[in-house]
Amino acid sequence: MEQVDISMIDKYEEKVPDFIIQTTSNSEDVTKSTKSWESVYVLVVTDNEFYALESDWVSAAQGYMAQAAYQYQRPDIEVFLNVAAYDASNKTTFSSDGRKTTDPFNLLREICPESYLNSKSADIAIYLGGNDKEGPEQGLAYQPGRYAWSQMVDDADTIDLYDGSYHARVWCIIHEIGHNFNAGHQDNGGYNQAYQWWESVVVPKYTVMWSSYFGSSFSTWKYSSLQYDGDSTHDNARALRIQKSTTAGYA
């Protein structure tokens, strides 16, 4: 087990402002969930391709997870996102299966069943994949649930801007883990939706649960919130707060 060291965040970090959570009488679910921190443990797994792509895959993954942990320690979320293990023991099993490029998400579920997650004391698992999946997806996850797959390389199958860069990788990891905590896309409905706003008349910005990646100038690593970068119908942070105790209790 290791508590992610958020001091590892580098020049790409996205600061969030300090603020006081404001609650009202009709938000009892939110009020209860913001009264206590939860610790969630993530099993980080990979394949031969990503293992070989990085000179030290664990060091690279630690940097990504530090960025994710930084977002989860926001005062409107309050989750300690820890890593149960960086696990490359199944990397050859992942890479020898053709589903690594056709169905990496269900490949993860098969190689690392819930009993495996439990044996690692992991609440959720994320597969950092070193292959370009066929089709337009760069990540998949249960909403909510225990599994997420995140592509670590350029997506050659689409015209979008997902290039497998550092910023794109962190975005994808935070996005898919967000689904595990029940965060939805911009068309999810209700309050649990991603948010888009204009920083200037020509620069649109998107919170992390937006369904497409538009590059580091436009796509942020932040979850939408009633307090900032969102409103009452764009508040992914609320969904995370409500779900966090359930997620923390999986293992």
Just name the CATH architecture of the domain at 36-184 and 244-248.
Answer: 3-Layer(aba) Sandwich
Low-confidence stretches at least 5 residues in length (pLDDT < 50)? Answer: 15-34
What is the strand tally? Answer: 7
Average pLDDT for all residues: 90
Structural class based on helices, strands and sheet pairing: alpha/beta
Describe the fold and architecture.
The protein has 251 residues and is an alpha/beta fold. It has a domain at 36-184 and 244-248: Collagenase (Catalytic Domain) (3-Layer(aba) Sandwich), CATH 3.40.390.10. It has 8 helices and 7 strands; from the N terminus they run αβααβαααβββαββα. It has helices spanning 28-33, 48-53, 57-72, 91-95, 104-111, 114-119, 166-180, 236-248, and strands at 38-46, 79-87, 124-129, 139-141, 147-151, 196-200, 203-206. Helix 3 packs across helix 7 (166-180). The longest helix has 16 residues, at 57-72. Mean pLDDT is 90; it is low at 15-34.
Provide a short characterization of the protein structure.
This protein is α/β, with parallel strands linked by helices and 251 residues long.
